[in-house]
Amino acid sequence: MRKLVLITATGAGSGYSPVAPGTVGSAVGLALWWMARDLPGPAYLALVAAVTAGGVWAAHRAEAIFGTRDDGRITIDEVAGMLLSLALVPTTASPLLVGVTGFVLFRIFDITKPPPALRGESLPGGLGVMADDVVAALYANACGQLVFRVPWPGLAQ
After folding, report:
1. pTM, to two decimals
2. What backbone phi and psi angles, to 5 degrees, belong to 121?
3. Do the beta carbons of residue 147 and residue 101 sit within 8 Å?
4. CB 12 within 8 A of CB 75
5. What does the pLDDT average to over 18-38?
6. By three-state DSSP, how is residue 67 classified?
């Protein structure tokens, strides 16, 4: 069970990156999105929910294993955050452009933690690990929806 917890919590090992583990974890989430982006909406949202719920479970247990609260090696929150950042954002323009835009937006919001994202960290256990990234992902998703759904005058659609 310990191996399952650590593989899940560290985002398939991305949390062990010596440089920018959160960014590497986000890249894992981007790769997972790339593979799942053509799923029907309900199936994709079920995937996001499963990764997020599994992340709460694994992050809670990984904190006990690592002996620290919200340890930097826990990156499942970034994986789930990336999936949510890109949820239902249309890829008709260019899947690559959508993915890169979502990645940049999520990293900006995850690092800056605009309100109420920072408050999420005060929640207990795995819920606190995941909450700030979920809020950051909702901000990133809203921006992505605006950019890729709203017709912009003068730009080819």
Report:
1. 0.94
2. -65, -20
3. yes
4. no
5. 98
6. coil
